[in-house]
Design brief:
alpha/beta; five-stranded parallel β-sheet; elongated
């Protein structure tokens, strides 16, 4: 920890200097309890992950503030997301990604017919729809959902999640009533960005 008389413009070079020397975090005095707690919690969490491909993030007051801001983003835990996916492993991977992003109120449907049934009996804020599923595929399920919505403003964003994306797939998905698509294997940063974009888009009203 550094004394409190550090100029603000010196902060970045000094933090980089200590990072190069092998330190894992940099916090200035006087240290607030919340920063000390979050610093220790972050470092312990990073050590438990046994990161092999990437170096652990260097912890500063700025990085702690950014993480706290992301974690406190309003409404995330209140949003209900439906995952329509037949592959058990993909179900677990996508659900875990959503939880890490901050969306914890999730439901799973193993095929399009089940997704349609859940949609009829529940309110969802967003649907992640696999393109190819048994019983009823994602495109047919999406068309049925759009029919159920009818001429209202209750348009629920539907994001196609598909493997082996081919030229023309995006057009097919949009024509069926989907709003966007993500190619498998799903990456957390892309998933987060697409969900954020769709949830920020005003509902489509069809009268």
């Amino acid at each position: 920890m550094m004394p409190p008389n550090i100029r603000k413009k010196d902060f970045l070079p000094i933090s980089a200097k200590y990072k190069e020397k092998g330190f894992s975090a940099y916090i200035t005095k006087p240290v607030k309890k919340i920063y000390l707690y979050e610093c220790i919690r972050t470092l312990v969490g990073q050590s438990k992950k046994m990161i092999t491909q990437h170096s652990p993030a260097f912890v500063t007051r700025h990085s702690i503030d950014e993480n706290r801001k992301a974690d406190s983003e309003p409404g995330k835990n209140d949003l209900k997301i439906l995952i329509a996916e037949d592959n058990k492993m993909n179900q677990k991977v996508i659900e875990k990604m959503l939880e890490k992003i901050g969306y914890t109120n999730n439901s799973i449907a193993e095929n399009g017919a089940k997704a349609l049934e859940l949609f009829k009996n529940n309110r969802f804020d967003l649907i992640l729809m696999d393109g190819q599923m048994p019983v009823m595929d994602g495109i047919e399920a999406t068309r049925e959902i759009r029919q159920l919505e009818g001429p209202t403003c209750s348009h629920v964003p539907i994001i196609a999640v598909t493997a082996n994306a081919l030229k023309g797939d995006r057009e097919r998905f949009i024509e069926a009533g989907m709003d966007d698509y993500i190619a498998k294997p799903v990456k957390k940063d892309i998933l987060a960005a697409v969900i954020k974009k769709q949830l920020a888009t005003p509902p489509i009203c069809l009268f």
